[in-house]
Amino acid sequence: MAHRRSGWGFRAGWAGLLLPWLATAAPAQSPGRTPALKEGSTAGVQGYGAASRGGADGEVYRVTSLADTGPGSLRAGVESRTGTPRTVIFEVSGTITLRSTLFLKGARLTVDARSAPAPGITLRKEPGCWNGVVIGAGEDLVVMGLRGVGRWEPDSAPSSCQTEAVFVIDGDAAPDQSTPRTGPVDNPRGVRRLVFAWNTITRAADSGADLWGDVQDVTFAHNLVYENYQPQTISYKRTSSRRWPRQRLSWYRNVYAHNGERQPQLVNGVYEMEYVNNIVYGWRSREGGYGLRFKGGSEDLPTSPVNVIGNAFLEKGAPDSGCVFGETPRGNSSPRERVTAMQLWFEDNLLPLGRAHADLNCFTTPTARAAGGPYPVPEPARVSRLPSGRIGEVLDGVGVPHRTATEQALVGEIRQALARRGSK
Fold first, then answer.
1. Which of 47, 76, 329, 367 is the one with CA 20 to 30 A from 272?
2. What is this structure's pTM?
């Protein structure tokens, strides 16, 4: 059943952005939420993607229907644009079932589901081998406050269809997005200046959310990613004739919990990335069993430099693999040597108990030590870091504003795990 507010289906002009945020207060079981913000506001966003303008100073489209298509639908809101910046907000709450891929593309678009009344907006997809939401071929994009739910059942093998994806950030997606891709397609535009924040992703067999191809200047922050099989790979499609790097990426204050692996997995061509104040908790040994991974394959693009600072890797049954190097989660000679030649800086991380730090958990590479410290991030893109021992503050505002009982219980479980390690 849809929960709905009264209001217009559409309003043009940037004056609409000055209306008070109409979302109801967050439930009492979700403490520490940020105050109500203007519709579409990215206040509090830091990092390389913070320069994204989204739909600011443009039209405001109000979602009034939970239908997949038709007037007042989310799809109509993102597909009916004519080049004018647009902010999409929600007058209803409930579940939108996608019957085909929803493409978020073009320039100057904000989708802000934090505006929805309780219990918020959940996106699901009908069965089939296609991706739920693809963010691609665009610039100045902002996606906030969505809960994406896939079809994977925890503790089970994924289906033969490996594209049970909830979200994909795809810099190689075809610009017109009019027909499904059947072969290699180059996008001359890529993805530029993206904010993906305060979202919740669960039950994805693969991609929640992957980042592929020509993508630059991204902030991925305050997201709750839990109970997924293989939530996140950052790499490129080998079918693409252009091996463009993924560059200037800020990953901070996210929570990954009860996933199998890839939180995320960095494969090749990842440059100038900061991974700061994230919590990785309870990776499942059944699904591979590791947290952050630098794969170090034999392809043509290296990965460097990357700063990994102030994160917590909290084991729950697989203590040796919070952060791993190598072609396999346990490493092998050639790829491991290739990874350790990269500029990877590790500092002030809470690592799993168990094997020695230099055995299977990641460590600062000789190349990074020779550089004398973490790679310098330009001042406008720097992320503020929590004081040592206070990473639990990440839990206060992570994910969508209206948590489910399951999500709130998970946050409580992680707080207890942090307390056992002497962290708040």
1. 329
2. 0.86
Is residue 219 a contact partner of residue 196, using CB atoms and an 8 Å limit? yes
> Beta-carbon neighbour count of residue 419 at 10 Å?
11
Q: What is the mean pLDDT of the chain?
A: 81
Contact 275, 309 (CB under 8 A): yes
Assign domain 1-26+39-244 to its CATH architecture: 3 Solenoid (2.160)
**Contacts with 385 (C-beta within 8 Å, 6 or more apart), sequence order:** 276, 277, 309, 310
**227 to 156, 161, 212, 265: CA distances (angstroms):** 11, 18, 22, 16
Task: Provide the H-helix boundaries in 257-318.
Answer: none
Among candidate residues 26, 175, 5, the one with its CA nearest the CA of residue 103: 175
Q: Round to whole Å and give the CA distance between 181 and 417.
A: 44
Alpha helix stretches (DSSP H) within 258-361:
333-340
For residues 336 and 251, which has the higher predicted lDDT (pLDDT)?
A: 251
DSSP 36: P
**Rounded to an integer, what distance in angstroms lies between the CA atom of residue 250 and that of residue 339?**
20
Q: How far apart are CA 278 and CA 14, in angstroms?
A: 35
End-to-end CA distance of the chain: 39
Q: Specify whether the CB–CB gap between 197 and 156 falls below 8 A.
A: no
Measured from the Cβ of residue 389, the count of other Cβ atoms closer than 10 Å reads 13
Helix (H), strand (E) counts: the chain: 4, 26
Which tens digit of pLDDT belongs to each residue from 157-208?
776 665 567 898 988 766 543 333 444 444 456 899 999 999 999 998 888 8
CB 418 within 8 A of CB 392: yes
**Longest CA–CA separation in the chain, Å:** 62
Residue of 386, 419, 220, 418 whose CA lies nearest to 313: 418
Q: How many CB atoms lie within 10 A of CB 153?
A: 13
Pairing of strands 59-63, 10-11: antiparallel
* Domain spans in the chain, listed from the N-terminal domain onward: 1-26+39-244, 254-378
Look up residue 29 and give its DSSP letter.
Answer: T
Q: Which residue has the tokens 């791993």?
A: 324
Cβ atoms of residues 374 and 347 within 8 Å: yes
